[in-house]
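Sample entry (124 residues):
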Amino acid sequence: MTEPDFDKTGGLIPAIVQEHETGEVLMLAFMNKEAWEATLSTGLATYYSRSRQELWVKGKTSGNVQHVKEIRIDCDRDTVLLKVVQVGGASCHTGNKSCFFRKYEDGEFKITGKPVFDPAEVYK
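Predicted structure, serialized as tokens:
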């Protein structure tokens, strides 16, 4: 099996995350080998949190887990694409559906959409 080349990138590779049905980009995270293996074995998107320096099962706290439906790897084997079913409708810790909720328009970034949940309530 061809696996990501974690050595090439210092142990962490980017993981682009898309909604399986629509193709909407939900987020970008990072995976180490342990997160990769956990994702493969559980079917739940698991990442490496650079700020906390630990594995992070997406949605473990909020309930907004990501069920992995398809995995792709790029030609250089240093980036993965996860196509997921996003439970709860929000992938972003801000409560938004996508982490890319700011759109550059007319010389400034404008917020698109409304949060699905209140982060202050979820992450007490």
